[in-house]
Design brief:
alpha+beta; Jelly Rolls; 9-stranded antiparallel β-sheet; 11 strands; globular; acireductone dioxygenase (Ni2+-requiring) activity; ARD; acireductone dioxygenase [iron(II)-requiring] activity
Length: 180
C-alpha cells in the first residue's frame, strides 16, 4: 500500500510523520508543491499489456494533466528483476539529483520509492499501482526501485528529450531506508 514517511535530514532512523492514507499524503505533499493523486484505468489492461494499451487506458488522465501543465510527451517504462542493467540503473537513481523539469510518474503496476529532500526533511513516498507523483523541477530527490524491481510506469515530460538529471553530489541518500 502507498505510504508517506517523513524524516528530518539529520535523523534517518526515526520518522517524524507517517501515513498510508492517500488524502493525507496528497495534502502533506501538496503543501510542498508535490502532486500526488490516484488514477484509474478506463479499461482492463489484462496481463503484460503493451505500451500503447497502457497509454490508451490512461489517456483521459494524461490529457487532463497535459492540458493543465503543458507537458509535451509521455512514454511507458517497465523494469523487471531479470533486467541485466538493474543494478547499474538502481545505483544511478539512488544518487540525489534534480531536473530542470517536473518529474512525473504514474505507476501502472508494481512499486517504487521516491525520496524528496525538502526544507530540512526527507519525504519518502512509496508509490504503488494507481499512484501519480509529480516532483517539481529543481527538487533534490532520488528513486529506489529495489533490488528486485517490478514496475511499469507512465513517464510524462516537459522536455521532448525526456529525463535529464543533474546530480547534486550530496551523499544524503546513502543514510536513509531503501526498498529490499
Amino acid at each position: 500500500m502507498s505510504a508517506l514517511t517523513i524524516f528530518t535530514e539529520s535523523e534517518a532512523t526515526t520518522p517524524v510523520w507517517y501515513s498510508m492514507d492517500a488524502a493525507e499524503m496528497a495534502e502533506k505533499l501538496g503543501s510542498k508543491g508535490v502532486r500526488f493523486e490516484r488514477w484509474q484505468a478506463d479499461r482492463d489492461l489484462g496481463d503484460n499489456p503493451d505500451p500503447e494499451t497502457v497509454i490508451g487506458a490512461y489517456q483521459h488522465a494524461i490529457d487532463r494533466l497535459v492540458a493543465e501543465k503543458g507537458y509535451q510527451s509521455w512514454d511507458v517504462i517497465s523494469m523487471r528483476a531479470d533486467n541485466p542493467q538493474k543494478e547499474a540503473l538502481r545505483s544511478k537513481f539512488l544518487s540525489e539529483h534534480t531536473h530542470g523539469e517536473d518529474e512525473v510518474r504514474f505507476f501502472v503496476e508494481g512499486a517504487g520509492l521516491f525520496c524528496l529532500h525538502l526544507d530540512g526533511h526527507i519525504f519518502q513516498v512509496l508509490c504503488e499501482k494507481n499512484d501519480l507523483i509529480s516532483v517539481p523541477a529543481g527538487t533534490p530527490h532520488w528513486f529506489d526501485m529495489g533490488s528486485s524491481p517490478h514496475f511499469t510506469a507512465i513517464r510524462i515530460f516537459d522536455n521532448q528529450e525526456g529525463w535529464i538529471a543533474k546530480f547534486t553530489g550530496d551523499p544524503i541518500a546513502d543514510g536513509y531506508p531503501r526498498l529490499p
